[in-house]
Amino acid sequence: MSERVSDRQAMIAGMAPEIVEGHFVYAVSSDDRLAAHAFAVIREAEGTTLILPEPLAAAEGLETEGPFVCITLSVQSALEGVGLTAAVSTALADAGIPANMVAGYHHDHVFVPAAEADRALSVLNATAAAAT
Fold first, then answer.
1. Mean pLDDT per 10-residue section of the chain, whose length is 132 residues
2. Helix, strand, coil proportions of the chain in percent (round to 5)?
3. What's the confidence (pLDDT) of residue 1?
4. Domain locations in the chain?
């Protein structure tokens, strides 16, 4: 396993954003069968949110929000690292691009509207370059 990065500048400079293939949607469902195929599962008091591949949600006839593209920040940021989420969300907000952040153990993931994916990737690459 690569060493986790916790220094703010190093996390931002090393984020190396990559677009994950496919489109994703947000849906609410308590179906454990669907949860097994979800990119992420978020359990809230109002219901369980699933981030699903768009074709699966469509096949199930779920009401969804999206489509979104997932951009994975390839840096292995420490979970206690400070500033990466703020830098990413601020850069995208300043460009007028909505962003939904999901943190995993190994990487952070940004879900942006599919129509904004290329522009979001460009903004994130520029943000990383400015941090070096």
1. 83 96 96 95 95 97 98 91 93 98 95 98 98 90
2. 35, 30, 35
3. 54
4. 8-130
In one-letter notation, the amino acid at residue 29 is: S
Class of domain 8-130: alpha beta
Per-residue model confidence (pLDDT) at position 29: 94
The string of DSSP codes covering 21-54 is SS-EEEEE---HHHHTT-SEEEEETTEEEEEEEH
Taking Cα atoms as reference points, which of 103, 93, 126, 130 lies closest to residue 17? Answer: 126
The residues near 111 (Cβ < 8 Å, ≥ 6 apart) are 24, 51, 68, 69, 70, 71, 99, 100, 101, 102
User: Could you tell me the two tokens for 118?
Assistant: 């290329």
Rounded Cα distance, 81 and 19, in Å: 23
